[in-house]
Structure of Striatin interacting protein 1:
Amino acid sequence: QALARSGRVCMCGGKMEGNGAPGNNKQKPILPKNRGEFIRNQRKDSEGFSEAPDLEFEYADSDKWAAELSLYSYTEGPEFQLNRKCFEEDFQTHRWVELDAVQHRAHAMRLLDGLDVTGREKRLKVARAILYMAQTFSDCGSEAEVQHWIRYNVFLLLDVGTFTALVELLNMEINSAACSSAVRKPAISLADSTDLVLLNIMYLMVETIQQDDPADPPEWRASRETFKTELSPLYNSEPVSVMLFAMVTKFCSGHAPHFPMKKVLLLLWKTILFTLGGFEQLQRLKVCKRVELGLPRLPEDSISVIRSMRAASPPASASDLIEQQQRRTRREHKALIKQENLDAFNEKDPYKADDARDDDDEGDDNDNNESALEAEPFPLERDEVMPPPIPHPPQTDRVSFPKGLPWAPKVEKDIENFLECSRSKFIGYTLGDTDTVVGLPRPIHESIKTLKLQHKYISIAEIQIAKEEEFQKTPLSGGEEELELCATELLYQGILPSLPQYMIALLKILLAAAPTSKAKTDSINILADVLPEEMTTVLQSMKLGVDVNRHKEIIVKAISAILLLLLKHFKLNHIYQFEYMAQHLVFANCIPLILKFFNQNIMSYITAKNISVLDFPYCVLHDLPELTAESLEAGDNTQFCWRNLFSCINLLRILNKLTKWKHSRTMMLVVFKSAPILKRALKVKQAMMQLYVLKLLKVQTKYLGRQWRKSNMKTMSAIYQKVRHRLNDDWAYGNDLDARPWDFQAEECSLRASIERFNSRRYDKAVGNPEFSPVDNCLQSVLGQKVELPDDFQMNYDLWLEREVFSKPICWEELLQ
């Protein structure tokens, strides 16, 4: 594209034709007119400014099953044959696919017994044999066959009780002597984490079982539901996720640097996804919960609305706007000189094809690779000249597009503000309620009626906050709270004592995996499970470079999905559980960290290339082609990298969750100058990603100043078209700036006090309010209690008897009554 833009190179009849003679293959390099134009063109190329089609990306809980099986790094390629060798040492009779179900089960039971040995080397060999059995690729000829036997063998291993044994072994490995020996090592490599091959088996089992296949037999479906129920309190009456969180914090504290953190995070993500449910299940739970609370139905299904959206053209940067203005001036000048060519600016001018000097003068006006903004004429130009006739699409295509705004407008706290303003204007006093409309004009009555009946939205969080306030006001008469011990509640209770440390650990790893972070001496080493012990060739080092980038991208994907799933499930379960997690993310600098992540060439990150022939199971089923430096650099031919686009959308959703309805956190976005960073992210032509970027821009628009709004009207129009409207919300004007001081500490302290009251009331039963503790009124039990007396009291016991007992008269009649 850069060559085509600067040199006007086109292919015609197999010959390169440029500004020189037709058919001349020796093309002269055409330099830009000045240094400024060269830098501008270079910037456009580096920022991915050229016109790109909409990304055909479908957001889901995870990628396709075959893609999610690729948890291995490219460095682990030789281990596949080692696993096969360990399996075939004990299994030499027949091919696995030729045996019947009884023989399969017998061998699985024999392998499971082999895990229960004291010898570490023997146990590791059996674990590798089980891993090979879970992968099953030697007897298969295609990827579909591999997936069939993976599914069969995984459910077989689950049926014989392999997962419970793996969890116990993993807990033993976490607390083994290998941690202390790894701490003393100066450099950690892949060889130090070979004992934790258990994580590979557990990940394959969880990932395979959670995939719901309509062709599964009924016994597999029953096993899946049983496994899902048992995963929550599987080990020590705590969810497996709590043990994996403990591994993350132990790794970040430096006590276990050999943990394969990518696999731990992937297993943690899949466990949370399986036990709590994905985004579609969340939507169903939300609908059911609103029905239970007696709230009206949701106006629309947010998932289907987002999927039906179309991406908008990216907004222009300042240099592009200046360039457009200059080109517009030249076109107006051309229109005055050549009256016969008034409509030539919409397509290439045929009269300029033979004139090389005109090409030089015009720069890149006639380039076919201009951006969507440059291709669209200005309104003034559209009025001045008659455009060519636009072919109308067929009637069937036209009716398929949705009309109107995609979201139904909502009213939450706006009715009270609207009434207060109306009373102050027409009557001169305020009441503080939303019911009384006495003295107000008739149109105000109709407006209130419309707002309440058609657009009023009551969230689940409002009901939960009101109930919590009632429990705090009337602790005795309010009664006991009915606590549903669902999977989300059990997980929150498990991670509650150490939740701040878990959030800090996840953000530390996210910072180390971000492409914009620089290597520091005090940062954690997340590449322990990808670095080989030695490298010999340049090709291996190039492959390792691709592998390291892929390794970091998978870590970012897992962490972003974990945080988003936890935030959404905690918010649905109870708003203060969500606020507790969100506040600790904010305190751990999650907001600037996400902004730092997006402060990069986001287009190159989303279109990152991978070596697909090295992914599992392709690499073990086929003979690998000869890898060269050119093939490694070219990568696979895909429009975008699914996991990177998934990670970007997740991080934007997390940022929205943290800042929504929080004035102080919104001001953090303004202080950290997030607007230009977010605006660059709009270059990605994917509707869902653009929606969450526009949401973040909308909440801070009123604080960015009039000049910013004036020069970003295309972005303002996109916000109006795509983001939900809140009636009476002056997001574009900023009329309440003076009335809203920014006091971050006061807002967060007030929220923290509410969270602590909620946690102490619901979960800290031992430390209750002493005024509400029961009193023992039985005389015999009170006198029978053993009281420990201090030493000084025992030494002066005679004096105490004389002063408190003998010297005071006792009225026995009153005492007996």
